[in-house]
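ENTRY TYPE: protein
CONTENTS: sequence, structure tokens:
***
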Amino acid sequence: MSEEQPPVPVIIRPSGNPESRSGLFRLLGIPIAIYCLWMIVTVLFEGDLRLFQSADPRGIIVYTVFACIITGMIIPVYCIRESFVTGAVNMFQIGFWPVRRTFYACFLTIFFGYMAMVLFSPFGTDTFTFGYAFLLLLPTAIASVTVCWVLLGTHIQAVVRGGGTILSIAAGSLITAWLFCLTSFVHSPAVHPQTALAGFLVLGLAAAVFFFAVRDIYAASIFVAFGLTFVMADRIGIPGTQAVMPVVYGSALLGVITLIGIHLYFARNFRTIKLPV
């Protein structure tokens, strides 16, 4: 079957009733605990230190490794792996697709994100500062997508899947958008808290719709990184020294490499079978 045709994943019925106490704990309890842990680590390594304003190179490295990569990306793999075994989620649902489809999704996302930057950039015509902010926030965006939508969103949908597609998408979008909105309280303090809260809520809703419509974790991470650059523009310090730039570039690259590594891990250990439409 050609890659242009939408594949139909094989639905494997989970072992055990998802409405049982153990099933709800596995599908909701553990993901929510991981979300809370991610929030706590983010507060400790970024929010309390106002890291994005100070742009401390060592702090950026520590925050990227502990908050974004370990807590926001690697730990959720354990829960997602267990859900693969029970059949609650599959590769397509968590946003891992063939390279060609991902390339097109990312290209279009970058194109429209660039157009939005040209028209509405909060930094005016200073494209360097916008690019700096985008790369600085990219690991945060990848972790946010992994925790809020790849982990929580898909597991919420698995719980309410019996109510139909519309209910599962609506529940997954609304709940995860609000959870993403809560991250505005743990990031660096905003100059205008109410405006920032509204911006995070709008971005959360838009990102949820984008993820569940496109189902590509790479494109969704780029989408959220662009959105965070707009919403958090007043909480990002202007890069004053060249010493911080290699760290920002390296942190963004480390986040992308980790995401690719997770993709390869799932691709080698789990397989979602495509059936003809």
